[in-house]
Design goal:
Length: 175
C-alpha cells in the first residue's frame, strides 16, 4: 500500500444552506448546534408580527374588492334590462360591464396579495430542508437577519451518510 498523509476537509454529501427568506428579528432558535435535525423541523423563528399585519391588511383589501364587485354586479344587473328596453344608453351599459370586469380583476389581485402575505408569514418559520446534521448558527436571538450585511444564510444542514473528503495533492505526489 502507498500511504500519504494529507490535510483535507470533510463535507456532507449534501450541504444545504438555511436562509432567511424574509427580513426580521430572530425570536427563537430551536436546535442544538452540531446535532441531527429532521426534514421540516423548526430551526429558527423570525418575529411574525409585521407579516401577520400584512395578512390582515391584504384580507381587508380583498373584502373591499369583493364588496366593490358585488356593487358593480348589482349595477350591471339593473342596467342590462334597461339597456335592452333602450331606457339607458349603450355607453352606460358598456361602462357598467367595464366596471364589473375591472372589479373581477381587482378581486383576483387582492387574492394574490393575500396569498403572498401568507407565504411571507410562513417564511418566518425556517425549517430544515432535509434530514442531517446542523452546523454552527450565524445568527443569534435578537439579531436582525435577511438583508446584507446581516446574515442571510443562517446555517447549513449536511447529509452525513455518506460524507465527502476534499483535499489538494501536488503534482509530484500525484505522479
Amino acid at each position: 500500500p502507498i500511504v500519504l498523509e494529507m490535510v483535507g476537509t470533510t463535507l456532507g454529501s449534501a450541504d444545504i444552506p438555511v436562509r432567511a427568506r424574509v427580513e426580521g428579528v430572530i425570536t427563537g432558535i430551536h436546535f442544538v448546534e452540531g446535532l441531527s435535525v429532521e426534514k421540516g423541523q423548526l430551526l429558527y423563528e423570525i418575529d411574525p408580527l409585521p407579516f401577520e399585519t400584512k395578512v390582515v391588511e391584504a384580507e381587508g383589501d380583498l373584502a373591499r374588492a369583493q364588496t366593490a364587485l358585488a356593487k358593480y354586479e348589482a349595477d350591471l344587473n339593473r342596467i342590462r334590462p334597461l339597456a335592452e328596453m333602450n331606457a339607458v344608453s349603450q355607453a352606460d351599459l358598456d361602462g357598467a360591464v367595464a366596471q364589473y370586469e375591472a372589479a373581477i380583476a381587482e378581486v383576483q389581485v387582492a387574492n394574490a396579495r393575500v396569498k403572498q402575505a401568507e407565504i411571507e408569514l410562513d417564511y418566518t418559520n425556517i425549517r430544515s430542508p432535509l434530514d442531517g446534521r446542523i452546523g454552527i448558527t450565524a445568527a443569534k436571538v435578537g439579531e436582525f437577519v435577511g438583508r446584507e450585511p446581516n446574515p442571510v444564510v443562517l446555517n447549513f444542514v449536511s447529509l452525513v451518510d455518506p460524507i465527502r473528503v476534499r483535499f489538494a495533492i501536488d503534482e509530484r505526489r500525484y505522479l
